[in-house]
């Protein structure tokens, strides 16, 4: 069931009617959320409901056992069992075909006949998201950062909460789970925020992402490139994946807000980042913080010297890349970002932490001056991120090499002008509003407009959504991850 579909609108309208009747009764409300979430998820393939239920039940029982066990060794073994079970399920469905295909290609390259046992494994939608969410609960209970819940229905609601079930954000139990233990109070500001987020997220998906997607496909599905075509196609894909994924996150947050729940911000204007570390503080925040807290720190973080720190960054980002999908270009994308983060850390660690002499107080610089001051760093970061998107989007190493070589060809394709016009038209609303949000430091700055201006802006977004609403619904990119 897609957010950008009539079926979801009907589903959500029916859910709201029932929700209004039971939202003050915790047990009935949470049971309704679980039932609706399982219906929402089972709309794709009901067979995978057993997988979602089984994974959730297992980690619920692991949490209860972890809290009761006093023996550190037995607690470690139980946590290891939870991690292994979750990763085996995730690995089988997500990486089995990739492993078999890679092994077959390797043997074929060496001239060795190899006929492995093959299976037509279907990837369950959203498995990477709810698996990581469920795993984080067991890890937090093991670390005694949160108590284990004894309310099974509440835990099922936490793992399967339909607004963010299939494409995140990856919520932490310490933030979302307690919200199922209390009665929600839905205020007018919450409704206004939720409606704005739904409209803005739908606009980013339906109007921006789905409109620039054919531009990116035109370039990446071609066989001859130049520097201009590669650059423009990569920019189009950067807009597509950002509008698509951050649009989903905004709709998820808005939907949850309308229901009286709060889920975390997953994007914070990432293309305004002035260095790579800043980018990862703004892009897919729920995944980057998950990898930091449960993988990077567990590997040793920055506690064992510079060389080990750089290695930990590379391992974390490569595995983060593979989390996105079973393909070597995702691993290469992760390696690219890991190397970039390591280089940035190496250079930034040489800078003095405090100025050598006290700096007299000055008036804050004007926004225009700040833009000029940080322009080189912003452009360098954006160029690095864009080449990473080329690695992410390309279908093979051969395509990566050919598109990279094409960056030395400065000829202009005949369609450059029309491409730029289309790209500019669809990017302009996104750039203007996010530049306004970045300048004010307030992602909800639009809600502070006068009633008439706010109504005009939201009405314009709604008109754009209706005009570009497609009969054949385009799935969100991150559903495949």
Explain the overall architecture.
- The protein has two domains: 165 residues, no CATH class; 276 residues, no CATH class.
- The protein has 17 helices and no strands.
- Helix 3 packs antiparallel against helix 4, helix 9 packs across helix 14 and helix 13 packs antiparallel against helix 14.
From the helix content, strand content and strand pairing, which structural class follows? mainly alpha
Individual helix count: 17
Q: What oligomeric state best describes the polypeptide chains here?
A: single chain
Helix content: 55-70%
- Report the order of strands and helices: HHHHHHHHHHHHHHHHH
- Main sheet attributes: strand count, strand direction, barrel closure: none
Mean pLDDT: 87
* Number of E-type strands: 0
Helix and strand layout, with pairings?
Elements: H1 6-22, H2 26-42, H3 49-68, H4 72-109, H5 127-142, H6 152-160, H7 173-176, H8 188-220, H9 227-258, H10 276-282, H11 285-296, H12 306-323, H13 328-348, H14 367-393, H15 397-405, H16 416-440, H17 451-468
Helix pairs in contact: 1-2, 2-6, 3-4, 3-5, 3-6, 4-5, 8-9, 8-16, 8-17, 9-14, 9-16, 11-12, 12-13, 13-14
The gist of it:
With 481 residues, this protein is an all-alpha fold. The chain is built from 17 helices and no strands. The chain has helices spanning 6-22, 26-42, 49-68, 72-109, 127-142, 152-160, 173-176, 188-220, 227-258, 276-282, 285-296, 306-323, 328-348, 367-393, 397-405, 416-440, 451-468.
Keywords:
single chain; 481 residues; mainly alpha; 2 domains; 17 helices; globular
